[in-house]
Amino acid sequence: MTVEPFRNQPIETFGTEEAKREMREALRRVKAEFGRHWGLYIDGAWMDTGEKILSLNPSAPKEVVGSVAKAGRAEAEAALEAAWRAFRTWKDWPQEDRSRLLLKAAALMKRRRRELEAALVYEIGKNWTEASAEVAEAIDFLEYYARQALRYKYPSVEVVPFPGEDNESFYIPLGAGVVIAPWNFPIAIFTGMIAGPVVVGNTVVAKPAEDTVVIAAKVFEIFHEAGFPPGVVNLLPGEGREVGAYLVEHPRTRFINFTGSLEVGLWIHERAAKLAPGQKWIKRVFLELGGKDALIVDETADFDAATEGILISAYGFQGQKCSAASRLIVTEKAFEPLMERVLKRAERLVVGPAEENPDLGPVASRAQEEKVLSYIEIGKGEGQLVLGGERLEGEGYFIAPTVFTEVPPTAKIAQEEIFGPVLSVIRVKDFSEALEVANGTVYGLTGGVYSRKREHLERARREFHVGNLYFNRKITGALVGVQPFGGFHLSGTNTKAGGPDYLLHFLEMKTVAERF
Ligand SMILES: NC(=O)c1ccc[n+]([C@@H]2O[C@H](COP(=O)([O-])OP(=O)(O)OC[C@H]3O[C@@H](n4cnc5c(N)ncnc54)[C@H](O)[C@@H]3O)[C@@H](O)[C@H]2O)c1
Ligand SMILES: N[C@@H](CCC=O)C(=O)O
């Protein structure tokens, strides 16, 4: 098999008239299919159930983007059964052939790129560039894991020779596992969490988040067209607490690949550790969870560059990224010049319906809106509200970019993940205190430093304890293969998605020794 070296997909910023025209056309086409219904996808076939999950447009929640059949326990059983049946043969496919299927899926995704971007705009409220970056990431996961998997081809492990014996060790897949995904990267994370285990010979039952079932169905149209054998990938939309929990506790679930909140992640960790009757393995559990990510700016920083990095990190996709900057830690001498710039730029940010490509679209759902507004109320008692702090006019879930200053490091809005367009600014006396505050939460996902002082950057490299640390740039938008992604502490098990070790999580090593 010959493949070109991996290269990241370009992200469209819609600067040209042609790109804008293409996107408007894609939005028109996706809107024309509003209300369409998809089934579950089990054992290579689409099937319906009596119940539906409706997907709403958060910019205009009266609009139904589409619906997907809702799975219950019977469908979960059927999907797991199909996945185990498929595993019997899929595990023995030559690695090149499995990789080729991912490359085919990537090619199909590229052909449908604008349509998928438009679906993200309507289903979850991403602006055009955020949508483009996410579809690019989904394609990257397919392309990257297809190539990485070739490293584990039989017999790939070097062992020390021993006289009179033939010793070999090789990797084998685990079995049928469950993928449970969040709504905030409903194509990239969803695709990546499926593609990784599957390409090395596992099979998967995938449960998308309830708010993003349409984009999940489109991913499965692509898997179907790519030609995955029946049962290798199965789509099981349903309620997390019902069908998700059922799959987590099921004795035939071999591994759980979860991305989502700390609360649900810890619950899964606990439940998956319990041996169910008939279960004969210890489930492998991967949990990629939340963040309370901090950007530090010191007095030597380029304040203009820092301002741009802060705004995109704090407000990109309305702050609904696990990597988002939700804390800004500023040294005393940097405070005034920096905050003057940040507030001047932030108050000019445009909030509106995602299809109009504003700086910020709506937050994802009514539940998100309520959660963010409740944190804003808490913040009013903890810091000084200097920008935003309110819901904006309009049908959609629009929240103004919000800034609180003089926030104590121990405040709730400086400790808990808000997952919205809210920035808590903490003033510190010097860089040492900045690092101490930055490390002072239960999370450890992303972080960043704006400084021109080499000593500060090197100190942060050693002492700022996060999985993804960025200097003099935004702290979001890790690129597949370039910045393997995952965090420390309660941010999760740090699988480093899009990194060279990711696929190993879904393999185990077998050793065979033969005495001659
Ligand atoms: N670390 C990362 O890479 C990363 C990436 C994206 C999002 N996140 C985190 O995800 C969170 C936002 O996503 P969310 O609101 O969809 O998270 P969530 O935990 O509410 O839901 C995630 C998924 O879990 C399912 N679920 C809910 N309860 C369940 C249960 N009891 N058993 C099994 N499944 C269950 C949901 O239906 C959904 O599919 C944020 O905390 C964010 O930081 C982390
Ligand atoms: N990997 C994404 C964040 C995913 C979590 O929401 C980033 O790097 O910004």
TrEMBL record:
Residues 48-512 form the Aldehyde dehydrogenase domain. Keywords: NAD, Oxidoreductase. SUPFAM superfamilies: ALDH-like. GO terms for molecular function: L-glutamate gamma-semialdehyde dehydrogenase activity; proline dehydrogenase activity. Its EC number is 1.2.1.88. Gene3D superfamilies: Aldehyde Dehydrogenase, Chain A, domain 1, Aldehyde Dehydrogenase, Chain A, domain 2. InterPro entries: Ald_DH/histidinol_DH (IPR016161), Ald_DH_C (IPR016163), Ald_DH_CS_CYS (IPR016160), Ald_DH_CS_GLU (IPR029510), Ald_DH_N (IPR016162), Aldehyde_DH_dom (IPR015590), Proline_metab_enzyme (IPR050485), RocA (IPR005932). It is an enzyme of class 1 (oxidoreductase). GO terms for cellular component: cytoplasmic side of plasma membrane. GO terms for biological process: L-proline catabolic process to L-glutamate. The active site is at E288. PROSITE patterns: ALDEHYDE_DEHYDR_CYS, ALDEHYDE_DEHYDR_GLU. It catalyses: L-glutamate 5-semialdehyde + NAD(+) + H2O = L-glutamate + NADH + 2 H(+). Pathway: Amino-acid degradation; L-proline degradation into L-glutamate; L-glutamate from L-proline: step 2/2. Pfam families: Aldedh. NCBIfam families: D1pyr5carbox2, PRK03137.1. Belongs to the aldehyde dehydrogenase family. This is L-glutamate gamma-semialdehyde dehydrogenase. It comes from Thermus thermamylovorans.
